[in-house]
Design a protein that fits this description.
The complex is a heterodimer of chains A (56) and B (161). With 56 residues, chain A is mainly alpha-helical. Chain A is built from three helices and no strands. With 161 residues, chain B is an alpha+beta fold. Helices cover 41% and strands 25% of the residues of chain B. A seven-stranded mixed beta sheet of chain B has the order 3-4-5-2-1-9-8. In chain B, strands 6-7 form a two-stranded antiparallel ribbon. The longest helix of chain B has 17 residues. Chain B is globular. Classes of the chains: A mainly alpha (56), B alpha+beta (161). The interface between A and B is medium-sized, with 30 and 40 residues.
């Protein structure tokens, strides 16, 4: 698989908005902790969606 | 909510050969982007298709977004007939791919994986370089932010080494 590919100006533009503090924080976690955080985030997002649905 | 732990446990208990890809793989690499489903590439061997069929027999797999009542049956024959499945199950949303855009099948990508241990299970995850490659190859506008984050993760890893 050839991974060689040059810089993409669109990607570079998006990269300016990436929160690198969050990345550094995530990299300190174990793989399992990262997946657990995702499941908690899913739960929170689903809760928000349900709450939004009830308001309508 | 997709129960990653239970899905991975099921796959592992049944001896399914699979590779974590997509958003969950990005999370493993340090992404903080929300993904609602688990994407895996599974090996298309006869034995593995049988294992995959058995693994989800009791989880009511059904085609996600399809109208209810379709004559969809989760079986070895169904898996043999189709390559990729976008499923809803009792454990959450699961995408089972026989082949992925820009990456190929299980055999094509297995050398571009690394082993992780999560929830007491050892499994394979697509490496960061290949994940970036396949996201770029897919060419979907919605992936642009993800690619930018993955490349930022790669840069951060390099500066930390």
């Amino acid at each position: 698989m050839d991974h060689s590919r040059g810089l993409d100006p669109v990607i570079e533009a998006y990269k300016k908005d990436v929160d690198r503090t969050l990345i550094r924080k995530n990299l300190k976690l174990s793989y399992e902790e990262r997946l657990q955080n995702l499941m908690q985030l899913q739960k929170f997002a689903n809760g928000l969606q349900k709450a939004g649905g009830r308001k309508q | 909510m997709t129960d990653f732990a239970k899905i991975l446990q099921l796959l592992s208990d049944h001896g399914v050969e699979f590779i974590i890809i997509g958003g969950a793989a990005a999370i493993v690499h340090g992404s903080s982007r929300l993904t609602q489903d688990l994407d895996v590439v599974y090996r298309r061997s006869q034995e593995n298709i049988a294992r995959l069929s058995n693994a989800f027999q009791e989880q009511n797999p059904y085609l996600r977004g399809a109208p209810p009542g379709l004559p969809f049956q989760w079986s070895e024959a169904t898996i043999r007939m189709r390559l990729n499945f976008t499923l809803q199950t009792n454990l959450g949303d699961l995408n089972l791919l026989g082949e992925m855009t820009g990456g190929g099948n299980y055999e094509d990508i297995v050398d571009h994986t690394f082993e992780i241990e999560v929830f007491g299970i050892r499994c394979l995850c697509l490496d960061l370089e290949t994940l970036i490659h396949v996201k770029r190859a897919a060419g979907r506008p919605k992936d642009l932010e993800t690619i930018a984050e993955l490349e930022a993760i790669r840069e951060t890893q390099h500066t930390q080494e």
